[in-house]
Design brief:
binds magnesium ion; alpha/beta; about 475 residues; binds adenosine-5'-diphosphate; about 10% strand; 4-stranded mixed sheet; 5-stranded parallel sheet
Length: about 475
């Protein structure tokens, strides 16, 4: 039976990210599964309550998927089985399930102890409650996708259909797509029918319907909705039968003027194993990308999440976390949740030193920062110019451009100030600021260019790893 827990835990790791997983799921002890009820033990009451409020739905869904039927979860702590909290599984086949837990689904069936999750009327009860526009921080990395999402939420089925949102892991695709769902539902008196579903669940339901000979019901269910949000469509790659069915679903919704929202970790043309006709459909509306957040946006996200957690967070601590964790927003959140928990357990105030201690292991594994010298060298190599030229006063167009890229990366990846960076290039700070703005603007407007810059960043990471 432990195998089931292992697999469910792996699923949770995928959804939560490594940090939250290790902090909250790893320490849980799986006691057993009996009568469709899994008993899971937390180290103490605080821990139990925390997991209960945030991860119970996810745990139920993950276990239900692995067991193959709805499973209840009983969360205990220490050996006080009497003090357990439990809830009923929200079947994965539930039409409005978001398949990712996070407060979805079982809202109405919760015991009253979880009053923090009491359904708010303006939100779709079947969607993750935290993923709203109000809780989404807009920065230069995501403002286009955000604007597109709002346009679709306000005028569904009109201009941008489908809306295709793509970007790396943990950058807010599911959050934005869910926010559209909430808005569509809340903004209409007759409560538009919104169906949010991970592509994986679409496939599972299709397989189930084929097996039970219930394809009529399946088609009805999808074609009757006002809006369909399919999350992580890259998952459809290579699944021919599912693609075929989705193609028909898509056409039927689209021709009725119903909104379709898709998310993916890649642009359609980069999804290998996607049929051409589906790719054409995906490309026929608006494609919007989400890039990794810059420092300012990371700080804003941390501050917003801290406020939502009621965690007083001095701005220098927010900056400290933002500077040291840049991988993705999910990891940022993981750090913050750990801080909040430790602060509340130890009743301490959060200072930079407290954060440094609390996040010690997480932050060191994350980013060893490159220094200015390394960046200059890697950039010179990348563009096949001499390091001496990069640092010289030469003004040929190509060399000047490489220098601007190097300056930009120094500002982005190190803690050095504009004047300090200027010094390393024998220039003054205004030249560095100018270079930084120029490159940042180009990154925002030119995705091919952005890919090149990301490639340099990966090379920098690799050179760091080799040096370590
Ligand atoms: P993805 O689907 O792209 O992998 P998610 O939408 O699941 O990423 O986002 C991961 C976590 O980061 C979520 O908890 C989400 O709320 C948070 N997040 C991502 N971007 C933002 C943002 N711009 N503002 C606030 N929270 C964000
Ligand atoms: Mg997602």
């Amino acid at each position: 039976m432990n195998g089931v827990w292992q697999k469910a835990a792996d699923r949770m790791r995928g959804t939560l990210g490594q940090v939250s997983y290790e902090t909250w799921i790893g320490p849980l002890n799986f006691v057993g599964l009996e009568n469709r009820t899994a008993t899971v033990e937390a180290p103490n009451k605080f821990f139990r309550d925390w997991v209960y409020e945030r991860y119970l739905d996810l745990m139920r869904q993950s276990l239900s998927v692995e067991v193959g039927e709805p499973v209840e979860v009983k969360l205990t702590f220490g050996h006080e089985t009497g003090a357990s909290l439990n809830g009923t599984a929200n079947g994965v086949a539930n039409g409005h399930s978001n398949g990712h837990g996070h407060g979805a689904g079982a809202a109405g069936k919760r015991p009253s102890a979880a009053s923090a999750d009491a359904p708010r009327r303006e939100l779709h009860p079947g969607l993750a409650q935290r993923y709203t526009f109000a809780e989404f921080v807009v920065g230069s990395s995501n403002q286009f996708a955000h604007a597109a999402a709002q346009a679709v939420a306000n005028r569904p089925g009109e201009k941008y259909n489908p809306l295709f949102i793509y970007g790396g892991v943990g950058l807010g695709k599911t959050h934005l797509a869910t926010a559209i769902g909430h808005h569509l539902w809340a903004a209409s008196n007759q409560r538009r029918k919104v169906l949010f579903m991970p592509a994986e669940v679409f496939m599972n339901e299709l397989i189930g319907s084929l097996r039970r000979d219930k394809m009529g019901e399946f088609k009805d269910k999808f074609r009757r909705v006002d809006a369909l949000i399919l999350d992580d469509v890259q998952f459809l790659a290579g699944r021919d039968r599912t693609q075929e069915e989705f193609f028909h679903t898509f056409n039927s919704l689209h021709s009725d003027g119903h909104q379709i929202v898709l998310t993916s970790d890649k642009v359609p043309r980069d999804i290998a194993g996607l049929e051409d006709r589906l790719r054409n459909r995906f490309e026929s509306g608006l494609i919007a990308d989400i890039a990794p957040p810059d420092l300012e946006t990371r700080v804003a996200i941390i501050q917003k999440k801290a406020a939502l957690e009621n965690l007083p967070l001095p701005s220098e601590v927010a900056l400290y976390i933002a500077q040291n964790v840049s991988a993705n927003v999910r990891e940022l959140e993981g750090c913050l949740t750990r801080l909040a928990a430790l602060a509340s357990m130890s009743k301490s105030t959060v200072t930079t030193e407290f954060a440094r201690q609390a996040l010690r292991d997480l932050i060191r594994t994350h980013d060893a920062k490159p220094d200015v010298d390394t960046i200059q060298k890697v950039v010179a190599d990348f563009f096949h110019i001499r390091l001496a030229d990069l640092k010289s006063k030469k003004r040929t167009q190509h060399i000047a451009f490489c220098r601007q890229v190097a300056m930009y990366l120094c500002r982005k990846l190190t803690d050095s100030s504009f004047p300090a960076i200027g010094e390393s290039f024998g220039r003054d700070h205004s030249t560095v600021i100018h270079a930084h703005n120029l490159i940042a603007r180009r990154i925002a407007n030119d995705s091919a260019f952005r890919f090149s810059i990301e490639k340099i960043e990966r090379e920098l990471k690799a050179s760091q790893a080799n040096a370590a």
